[in-house]
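To whoever is covering the structure queue this week,

Two jobs came back overnight. Logging them here so there's a record in the thread.

Job A:
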Amino acid sequence: MRTPLIAALFQLYASGSFSLKALVHQSHSIGLTHPRAGRRLFKSEVHRLLRNPIYYGDFVWDGQPYTGSHAAIISRDLFDAAQTVFARRPRTRYPKQQHAFMGRLTCARCGCAITAERKKGKYVYYHCTDSQAAATTRISAKSASANCSAT
């Protein structure tokens, strides 16, 4: 039966001591699996589960909230506590690649940020994020580091 497991998942997340990633591992350890596939839940599925109002008795249809006739699995207070934890935790974003001058350079011409681009898997080129200047202003990592060490 999934009902007590889902209620436990809401309790754990509302406590504020679990991240979504930790909650995925916890859901597996308490035995909560995907309803049809029988596999571990993905982080996106746990996120969707914790955001779904159906578990406290409401549902959304065509963008409109409705009160359901089904029995609620959790209380509205527990659902709101979980949503408060969502609001407290900003979504972390990690860059796919680390570059030497990442976040440190701006374009002298227009003031936009300078971004790095890897070509052929090993050459790093820096260019302005402004689309018009990007076509004309390209600088290699070698010349960028030479210019920085010269000043």
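Job B:
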Amino acid sequence: MVRCTTGTSSASSSGGPRGGAAGRTVVVLDANALFLPLRSALRIESEVDRLLGPYEIVVPTSVLGELARLEEREVGDASAALALARRFRAVRSRGRGDDAVRACARALGACVLTADRALRSRLVEDGTSVLYPRDRSRLALERAAPRATVNSRPHARRRVPPTERAR
């Protein structure tokens, strides 16, 4: 079972007074998103602000754990990505990988920033909007289609029994 809850953290949220305020769009970061500014000219916070307006960036604890494991294995830029992640508010998550990120996005009603194309497709199918790198310095937003409800289907034609058609 994967679960995400908001938790308290000593890490600060994005942009000082922006964090946690009502009316702000919540953006969940995937682990690979934290490597983007280290390997390109992308500035996450200014791009999120450009696309969404007021926002709060959060990082699931599963992503923090993934980055810590990468740091232990001495993967390039993992230490810097972990330091960047700690600048944002942590949210408790259970599970690992993409499932934990998806669960957090659903639980928080959040948008996700990821460079993972497969995860992006699954998120959009789930009804979650996704920020993704458009080029080396800009993000793009893929808004999820509204979820269909029973009442949002087009009206079906009434099926006429064969006995009524003959009249």
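Note for Job B: Helices lie at 36-39, 44-52, 61-72, 78-85, 97-108, 117-126, 162-165.

Please reply-all if you pick these up so we don't duplicate work.
Q.
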